[in-house]
Please model this.
Amino acid sequence: MNATVSDVADWWATGVCRMEPGVVELRGIPVQDLIGSTGLVATVWLLTRGALPDPREAALLEAALVAAVDHGPQAPSIAIARMTVTCGVGLNNAIASGVNALGDVHGGAGEQCVELLNEIVQREADGQSLTGAVAEVIGKHRYVPGFGHRFHPVDPRRDPLLALVDQAAADGVVAGRHARAARAVETALNTGRAKPVPMNIDGATAVIYAELGFPPPLARGLFVLSRSVGILAHAWEESTQGRRNKGPIPPAVLPTYLGDPTG
Amino acid sequence: MNATVSDVADWWATGVCRMEPGVVELRGIPVQDLIGSTGLVATVWLLTRGALPDPREAALLEAALVAAVDHGPQAPSIAIARMTVTCGVGLNNAIASGVNALGDVHGGAGEQCVELLNEIVQREADGQSLTGAVAEVIGKHRYVPGFGHRFHPVDPRRDPLLALVDQAAADGVVAGRHARAARAVETALNTGRAKPVPMNIDGATAVIYAELGFPPPLARGLFVLSRSVGILAHAWEESTQGRRNKGPIPPAVLPTYLGDPTG
Amino acid sequence: MNATVSDVADWWATGVCRMEPGVVELRGIPVQDLIGSTGLVATVWLLTRGALPDPREAALLEAALVAAVDHGPQAPSIAIARMTVTCGVGLNNAIASGVNALGDVHGGAGEQCVELLNEIVQREADGQSLTGAVAEVIGKHRYVPGFGHRFHPVDPRRDPLLALVDQAAADGVVAGRHARAARAVETALNTGRAKPVPMNIDGATAVIYAELGFPPPLARGLFVLSRSVGILAHAWEESTQGRRNKGPIPPAVLPTYLGDPTG
Amino acid sequence: MNATVSDVADWWATGVCRMEPGVVELRGIPVQDLIGSTGLVATVWLLTRGALPDPREAALLEAALVAAVDHGPQAPSIAIARMTVTCGVGLNNAIASGVNALGDVHGGAGEQCVELLNEIVQREADGQSLTGAVAEVIGKHRYVPGFGHRFHPVDPRRDPLLALVDQAAADGVVAGRHARAARAVETALNTGRAKPVPMNIDGATAVIYAELGFPPPLARGLFVLSRSVGILAHAWEESTQGRRNKGPIPPAVLPTYLGDPTG
Model:
């Protein structure tokens, strides 16, 4: 066994925080200097990006995080958390199972949309026309992430989020290129179609995350933080209603039997 | 099968949000009225409590949520998330497993401390002396939740949080009874002991949650929201470091073999 | 930093397996000596109990594990796994969230029933009458774990499991005391009641686990292993059906809105 | 709301089991006909494949499932379960978090190796030479899944598993094409290399799963069932050792602080 205790300490090396007895520093800032003066959203930024944001950046991020907190018990993540909490586990376990469902299909559209917008913006920076870049990039997708909704004809969260991005761009807080790219995607998707494919909440929040410079995987991470609020609220409500072992449908409804699918 | 579609709709009844095509209302407020004007912490309060808080209540809650975001990779929740993200799953899965560990022992002290403080305050309201109430209530516990720390001799987060509670009490935002109870517990625990058992982060945040009227299980829920920030930041950092299948210790260190424990 | 590398190795000490380059021993047996000659259920016993079982003990355990593999998509664990797998995560994540729901209420009845049967058997060993022991022990419970079912008037798994226990008792493989205790509980619960409260699958498997000497928490662990089979089968079936983001009810059914529950 | 209760029943349609009051049928077989006569591994096959296996197929599958039950606490899945169970949650929650880590990198090599072997076998069936097929297929991978091990120079589980496959091929139970392909991959990888890249446990079990006709994603599912046994045993052992909030390293070892990584 040739390893040393230093190797063990290095195995868990981190720049996120420094811990010593009596000391908790987050990205170099003593935690006591944050308590009471720095908001939760700015702290999210500090921990994930390494330094505190401009307050106007934090405000734009905060709007995106508020917008996505909940979308009702028809969303698998919410339903799962509600069912889990009736099974005799803690609220943390119920939240965990809800968050666990925020995968590529349920919670990943924001991440994929940031990638898509980044690619369009990069192509523009490299000299391609916006229209051309949009056409090529969306041509790769069967479902263009961040656009279209099976429930809302117009998502009520789209316009207020884009208005805030526009204001931030006007104020010089962000460059506005990703917002412009997203609107160009929306136009391209809707040209010549009977049923529109409008930007959805994943698209509108992706615009914000991309404008603020978050790497794509953090778009999913931020969505997790946001949706955890709704997951908690629903799990808590369910736990106060007293059901035990809640299934997906009332016990009086029996699932259809499909027969032997290998027959 | 006697159930109706209404029974199915009722099975998933909720007061947290109202969803219709084009409509997302959170506790009766259209989501578009929150975006850009309401903070994330006030939205947490809205969803879990049913109405928006006073801004000074939200500020006090925000301080507690900021204080607990991270305590380093020695905490099981953080280490678990870091290890999980190296195994080829999404950030959401890594966060889920971290949150899943915030059980009665790791994340539950806040919940238990709110219960303990509520009981002391109730006993006082019923006419018992504070000293008597504290003695009886802490006598029930082997580990008094919210007090003592195996790492910090003095937790750097305790004093700034209590100072904010005191200010809120002076301003009439909270009553201050739970803070008084918590200090009385600390005094009782430290009387006649060589090694102090100071209030820790779970205790200091429990004071705030209790003063603000959160039911005990929500203390754990709020801790989950707070610690999720650190879990995300650590999982993200780990994912950028490139390890695959990270175990708890470097591969060169082999776990001790205990022999046949049944022998 | 006073710790040594030995302290680190001891931190992860285990008697379950010994690992060295080229060596994998399970409870002292080289893994290559198990492959092809020892069954999976005997291996479960080996790892959890420390030594291989008698083949007749393994057969009884195997019957209990087979009996509980599935109870359909109305069970929260199964529904959760099916919903999760449509959200863009791996089968392992879907199974994890299903298993996460096997808590005190959904998967814990077996554990609680083993405790209850152990207590009755202990009271008998201490000289109390069986009838008296049963009456006192079941009097502590609002729901007697392992008895009663909201779906099956008679659980089809009860009789074959009890017949196997009886045979094992006749063969001297087990003592038969827990089976006798469980039948006495059933008799006591059904005396003078219009609607019977028969032993259910948790009760019948708890009899087996208790007769075989598994500590109560392992009853839950064994149920997890068993139900994981059904969870996998359902998640896999769902993943072949092509739904994305499957919610608990069809999108055309909207959850009932409860209004402001704080109003 | 135009949906009917039939739509709701169809939303949860399944061919895995048929449930009615008093009835539990698994893939068309009443559960009581399985209890006591059908093994757990044959039941795994029944539920995932739709019909019972030949006993020699079940025996081969059983060997693969036994081989992979445990690989010690240095594996993230095992360490995570052990840490989680010290945090005040149930054994089911600890197992869930262990299983959650069996992602593309930790538990997915088997799935990827089945895909790789299937492709080689298909290319051979289409007329390509085995050597040519192997060269083209392994050329696509940086890490060839199922081959190489950072710990074992020779994995002790490889030879006994391949011997069982060879016997099954000699007996006409399986065709033996995937075993031949896997050995050809091993030869190709080791030609001209100082350090060998031998077939590992994921490769050897993938040969069996592929020979038995399991679709690739089920290879991961089967590994989850197998490793859950070890995860349970380790979580249970840890829970009897009494640690609370177990971190990855002893408290006396502090993680190295990396400084501000953005600086």
User: Anything to note?
Assistant: The beta strands of chain A are 17-20, 23-26, 29-30.
